[in-house]
Amino acid sequence: MKHFVKTVSVILLAIVALTASNCNKTPNPPPDNIFSYRNPITNPPDEFKISFDISQIGDKIATVKFADSTVWTITNQGDSRVSFYIQNPEGEKQGINSSVTYGLRGGVWYQFIANNNNHTELRDFFCKLTKQQDSYDSFEPKF
């Protein structure tokens, strides 16, 4: 019986020690820098995603302001039945079916619009933005 109690005590001590060693570790950051469309996004990182809840029919609009004028690749990662657009401050819209690269101005608000016209079975829609190394000044097209 003493041997059993000693063995159980050692096992419990090992479990407590292993659990305590993980307490001070920094939690992992959110995967892929995912932002909700519901909150304005200001000065985003060089690569991020926008998550849209498209379970309801209608426009879901994310607003993004970039720190500097830079070149971005915008990738539609959602269902092709969802209409996805970018709108600049002048109100011009461009549809994004798969992936496009634009020079986008810093300091102004852009809108990213996902519209689930009539597919109530859809729930989530994502787009991904990746900053490019191209020079904004010499890059075309700008939007």
Describe this structure in words.
About 15% of the residues lie in helices and about 40% in strands. The protein has about 140 residues and is mostly beta strands. It has a single domain (about 30-130), classed as Spermadhesin, CUB domain (Jelly Rolls), CATH 2.60.120. The strands form 2 sheets. A 5-stranded mixed sheet has the order 1-3-10-5-8, with no helix packed on it. A hairpin with a 5-residue loop joins strand 6 and strand 7. Residues about 15-20 have low confidence and may be disordered.
Structural class comes to mainly beta
Percentage of residues in strands: 35-45%
Low-confidence stretches: 16-21
Alpha-carbon Rg, integer: 23 Å
Q: What is the CATH third-level topology name?
A: Jelly Rolls
Order of helices and strands: HEEEEEEEEEE
User: What is the top-level CATH class?
Assistant: Mainly Beta
Any idea what the CATH architecture is?
Sandwich
Q: How does the overall form come out from the CA principal axes?
A: globular
- Overall pLDDT: 86
Count of alpha and pi helical runs:
1
Helix % is: 10-25%
Number of domains: 1
Q: Quick one: CATH superfamily?
A: Spermadhesin, CUB domain
Spatial strand sequence of the major β-sheet: 1-3-10-5-8
- Distance between the ends: 78 Å
Short characterization:
This protein has 143 residues and is mainly β.
Which terms summarize this structure?
single chain, 143 residues, mainly beta, Jelly Rolls, 1 helix, 10 strands, 40% strand
